[in-house]
Amino acid sequence: MTYLDHAATTPMSPAAIAAMTDAMSTVGNASSLHSSGRRARRVVEEAREAVAEALDARPSEVIFTGGGTESDNLAVKGIYWARRDADARRRRILVSAVEHHAVLDTVTWLADHEGAELTWLEVDAAGRVHPETVRAALAEEPGDVALATVMWANNEVGTVNPVADIAAVCAEYDVPLHTDAVQAVGGVDVGFAASGAQALTVTGHKIGGPYGVGALLLDRSASCLPLLHGGGQEREVRSGTLDVPGIHAFATAVSAAVEHRRDSADHVTKLRDDLIAAVRAEVPDAVLNGLPAESPDRLPGIAHFTFPGCAGDSLLMLLDAKGIECSTGSACTAGVAEPSHVLTAMGADATAARGSLRFSLGHTSTRDDVDALARELRGVVDRARQAGLSGMRKQKQEA
Amino acid sequence: MRVLAAMSGGVDSAVAAARAVEAGHDVTGVHLALSAKPGTLRTGARGCCTIEDSRDARRAADILGIPFYVWDFAERFTEEVVETFVGEYAAGRTPNPCVTCNEKIKFEALLEKAIALGFDAVCTGHYARLSVVDGVPELRRSADESKDQSYVLASLTPEQLRHAMFPLGGSRKPDVRAEAAERGLAVAEKPDSHDICFIPDGDTKKFLESRLGERPGDLVDAETGAVLGKHTGVHGFTVGQRKGLGIDAPAPDGRPRYVLSLEPVSGTVKVGSSDELAVSRIDADRAIWPSQRPLDGPTECVVQVRAHGGMAPAVAEADGDEVRMSLREPLTGVAPGQVAVLYRPDADEGDVVLGSAKIAATA
């Protein structure tokens, strides 16, 4: 099997599996006061310190959550509510048009139910948010902005945003910035303090850690109301018995991802460039989306292409039948491949957006994976082209 | 063969796919997302468009161990089925959207895509018997007469039928349910879908009103020409309809009145007694001969004008694309726009579909 969907999830590292199974075999609620509790607490706090160290944050800024979606929800809703409650005028959220659904659907919900007003930050043809765009949106009416949210790196096309520059603009206007760095950690250097963001989302399963555990890095000065009420375990911002094994394994994965980032990025970048070259050799009219291959502002592991005249779902099925697994980008709950909002925001028309595939590499990828794709791709694209875009709209009949 | 199984999430298509797998075919399951705004779990599962149905189909595919995908045919479905449905009603005709869906979506859009992607056939859970001998298809009624769906498949061309597979044609519904349970398919007890899948509340009149608005017109006595009342649009009526005419005064003879005809341009709905409703001649066009054999001279057959019921012995004669039918027993509620299907009776093996055509006029 050729797994080219590491951006969806990547295999857990042996170290993270060992850490998790180790912690699973010991009892202890990290909030209990006896020895077992203290032992569990120690594991959690060491994990907190490890995550903080790896991501240039203070331990007190690390709030463990149930993963990226929860962290995004907590940051966006929590900061919105806190800022609005402090000043009722602050209802505007600046949000990039290419965010993950965990942010997109959250801001849309706030607009529908909590009186938020949304200012969509446009992106350029490569999917990048420019600091000037943020400045223009802030300058409109700085006093009514609750927060800005701009992802560190895009999960579909792999474009990296100038987060520090954007945060600097936000800071001028005293507006907190949240950044979803789920896809960035392990791929590029991610430093919370240096970025200037007030909140940063990270999750385990994209970096060799377990599912269902992640963190929100939250600046001590940022006020944020909780989503989950209860024991107040995490700084009163997040309640719920701490998932000691998950947190332990998550921290192990974060540390390893950051420690080995440079080597891993070199390895993955090389494979990605080989993959891009192979795709271009087999299908000369394939269009690489996002920044040019050689740009430094590109995640190492992602290569996203539009294949003119093909439907993404046909390509995916045909490659799947050949044992090659990749993604059409975004999927809705029914499993229907919808035109990607990311590509649409980058200016692609709906047909091109539907004819796209994301190949993503990771720590277990090898040259064999690229070769397997190169072997099958041309035949698959030819077939998919015959099937065309049928089903999506009526084709010209009897032409 | 490489077979694409269309899986709605219901029991029939799940068992059909299972039988295709068992027959040794290389089967891939596909659920067609047809609704632009799929219903959620909360809005319940009726028809074949909800997210729950998609999950049911996926679980069935899991049990069968076959690959499964969801394909989005919503645009095409809206264009070909929903818009046609609305347009036909606006024109005073009574369309059957399931016929259109089979003809244009399952065995055109889906089949074309399947063939292009390297599949040999599309498999569905329809109840009809299909055999292909020397490349000539023969479509017959299902062994379960109460479930027979040959009517809604009779508009398929020979070419479409050559690439179709209906593994349930020889079975009875209760046996299919029992088989689903034996195979561990969770959909074994799932209720049958009814009505029109894109009108989840079943209120066709309300749906048409929301699409077409009010188009007021007169309700007229067919015999005297007297205006009996007003209505809000011909799309609210079907030929043969008795209830909901909105006429206050009873007929002079005290007999119930029925819709006899719809005139979309003037907006006139003509009503009269059931005698006048009886039809003994049907002219139809757009004939399709599933077995590639147009009628050869006047042919004794049975004509069916609705998906369920509406059958009469007849003599039919074809002239190119057109078919004229003289019924030996009159039928009521014969609506232009519906499909007339011609069968050659065969009590043992199932009636054979000779052809089908779209009803243009009645007398």
TrEMBL record, chain A:
<comment type="similarity">
    <text>Belongs to the class-V pyridoxal-phosphate-dependent aminotransferase family. NifS/IscS subfamily.</text>
</comment>
<protein>
    <submittedName>
        <fullName>Cysteine desulfurase</fullName>
    </submittedName>
</protein>
<keyword id="KW-0808">Transferase</keyword>
<keyword id="KW-0408">Iron</keyword>
<dbReference type="InterPro" id="IPR015422">
    <property type="entry name" value="PyrdxlP-dep_Trfase_small"/>
</dbReference>
<keyword id="KW-0411">Iron-sulfur</keyword>
<keyword id="KW-0479">Metal-binding</keyword>
<dbReference type="GO" id="GO:0031071">
    <property type="term" value="F:cysteine desulfurase activity"/>
</dbReference>
<keyword id="KW-0663">Pyridoxal phosphate</keyword>
<dbReference type="Pfam" id="PF00266">
    <property type="entry name" value="Aminotran_5"/>
</dbReference>
<dbReference type="InterPro" id="IPR016454">
    <property type="entry name" value="Cysteine_dSase"/>
</dbReference>
<dbReference type="GO" id="GO:0046872">
    <property type="term" value="F:metal ion binding"/>
</dbReference>
<dbReference type="GO" id="GO:0051536">
    <property type="term" value="F:iron-sulfur cluster binding"/>
</dbReference>
<dbReference type="InterPro" id="IPR015421">
    <property type="entry name" value="PyrdxlP-dep_Trfase_major"/>
</dbReference>
<dbReference type="InterPro" id="IPR015424">
    <property type="entry name" value="PyrdxlP-dep_Trfase"/>
</dbReference>
<feature type="domain" description="Aminotransferase class V">
    <location>
        <begin position="2"/>
        <end position="373"/>
    </location>
</feature>
<dbReference type="InterPro" id="IPR000192">
    <property type="entry name" value="Aminotrans_V_dom"/>
</dbReference>
Automatic annotation (TrEMBL), chain B:
<dbReference type="Pfam" id="PF20259">
    <property type="entry name" value="tRNA_Me_trans_M"/>
</dbReference>
<keyword id="KW-0963">Cytoplasm</keyword>
<dbReference type="GO" id="GO:0103016">
    <property type="term" value="F:tRNA-uridine 2-sulfurtransferase activity"/>
</dbReference>
<dbReference type="Pfam" id="PF03054">
    <property type="entry name" value="tRNA_Me_trans"/>
</dbReference>
<dbReference type="GO" id="GO:0005737">
    <property type="term" value="C:cytoplasm"/>
</dbReference>
<feature type="domain" description="tRNA-specific 2-thiouridylase MnmA-like C-terminal">
    <location>
        <begin position="282"/>
        <end position="359"/>
    </location>
</feature>
<feature type="domain" description="tRNA-specific 2-thiouridylase MnmA-like central">
    <location>
        <begin position="205"/>
        <end position="272"/>
    </location>
</feature>
<feature type="active site" description="Cysteine persulfide intermediate">
    <location>
        <position position="197"/>
    </location>
</feature>
<dbReference type="InterPro" id="IPR046884">
    <property type="entry name" value="MnmA-like_central"/>
</dbReference>
<feature type="region of interest" description="Interaction with tRNA">
    <location>
        <begin position="147"/>
        <end position="149"/>
    </location>
</feature>
<feature type="active site" description="Nucleophile">
    <location>
        <position position="101"/>
    </location>
</feature>
<feature type="site" description="Interaction with tRNA">
    <location>
        <position position="126"/>
    </location>
</feature>
<keyword id="KW-0067">ATP-binding</keyword>
<dbReference type="GO" id="GO:0000049">
    <property type="term" value="F:tRNA binding"/>
</dbReference>
<dbReference type="InterPro" id="IPR046885">
    <property type="entry name" value="MnmA-like_C"/>
</dbReference>
<keyword id="KW-0694">RNA-binding</keyword>
<feature type="binding site">
    <location>
        <position position="32"/>
    </location>
    <ligand>
        <name>ATP</name>
    </ligand>
</feature>
<feature type="binding site">
    <location>
        <begin position="6"/>
        <end position="13"/>
    </location>
    <ligand>
        <name>ATP</name>
    </ligand>
</feature>
<keyword id="KW-0819">tRNA processing</keyword>
<feature type="binding site">
    <location>
        <position position="125"/>
    </location>
    <ligand>
        <name>ATP</name>
    </ligand>
</feature>
<dbReference type="InterPro" id="IPR004506">
    <property type="entry name" value="MnmA-like"/>
</dbReference>
<dbReference type="Pfam" id="PF20258">
    <property type="entry name" value="tRNA_Me_trans_C"/>
</dbReference>
